[in-house]
């Protein structure tokens, strides 16, 4: 069930809301239209959406898409840290579009995995994902997003920071501190792996 403000509380609900927004569009879905599906709601889903796009085939395999999603994460997390309640993206990003059918296909492929992830979600260790810790998560997401343009140079590697951002955003959305710890571990491991791949 969504929260009282309409915000999703699990990954499958994010996928469902994203898909419903895509169905309302004609031939393409712009970045701004996708973000509008979660406007005025909690910070978490706005982080989940670009991370999910960067991970989901076939969208995440399109050159430039992971980097664009990383820029969106930086903008959203940065504005959250600055105290904005409604995210803004510049026109050159907001007007970028993806074929509607590709969006729907990505949502369909993501749903079984999203439901599997939701089976592990619970309101645990909430102190780790509430209050000041939300700002810590936002800062970590910015750091991860900064690595995505470099990670995209190696096939499939951008999925590592995208996965970490996904889990951190989901932890904020579901108020699951245990999931937040997992996201932090993925972040540390992913950053270390990225550095290793770039050096060898």
If you had to describe this structure to a student in words, what would you say it looks like?
With 200 residues, the chain is mainly alpha-helical. The protein is 65% helix and 3% strand. Strands 1-2 form a two-stranded antiparallel sheet. The chain is globular, with a radius of gyration of 15 Å.
Per-chain topology:
Elements: H1 11-23, E1 28-30, H2 31-36, H3 43-55, H4 65-81, H5 91-94, E2 97-99, H6 100-118, H7 132-146, H8 148-151, H9 159-174, H10 177-199
Antiparallel strand pairs: 1-2
Helix pairs in contact: 1-6, 3-4, 3-9, 4-7, 7-9, 9-10
Jot down its keywords:
200 residues; mainly alpha; 2 strands; 65% helix
Task: Quickly describe the structure.
Helices cover about 65% and strands about 5% of the residues. The chain is an all-alpha fold and about 200 residues long. A two-stranded antiparallel ribbon has the order 1-2.
């Amino acid at each position: 069930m969504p929260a009282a403000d309409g915000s999703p509380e699990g990954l499958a609900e994010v996928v469902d809301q994203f898909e419903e927004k895509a169905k309302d569009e004609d031939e393409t879905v712009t970045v701004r239209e996708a973000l509008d599906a979660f406007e005025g709601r909690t910070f978490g889903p706005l982080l989940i959406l670009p991370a999910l796009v960067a991970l989901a085939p076939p969208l995440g395999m399109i050159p430039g898409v992971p980097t664009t999603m990383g820029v969106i994460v930086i903008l959203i997390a940065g504005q959250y840290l600055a105290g904005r309640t409604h995210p803004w993206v510049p026109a050159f990003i907001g007007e970028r579009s993806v074929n509607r059918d590709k969006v729907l296909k990505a949502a369909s492929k993501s749903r079984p995995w999203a439901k599997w992830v939701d089976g592990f979600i619970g309101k645990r260790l909430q102190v780790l994902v509430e209050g000041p810790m939300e700002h810590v998560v936002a800062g970590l997401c910015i750091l991860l997003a900064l690595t995505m343009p470099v990670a995209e140079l190696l096939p499939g590697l951008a999925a590592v920071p995208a996965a970490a951002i996904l889990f951190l955003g989901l932890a904020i959305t579901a108020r699951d501190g245990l999931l937040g710890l997992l996201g932090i571990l993925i972040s540390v491991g992913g950053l270390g792996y990225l550095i290793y791949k770039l050096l060898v």
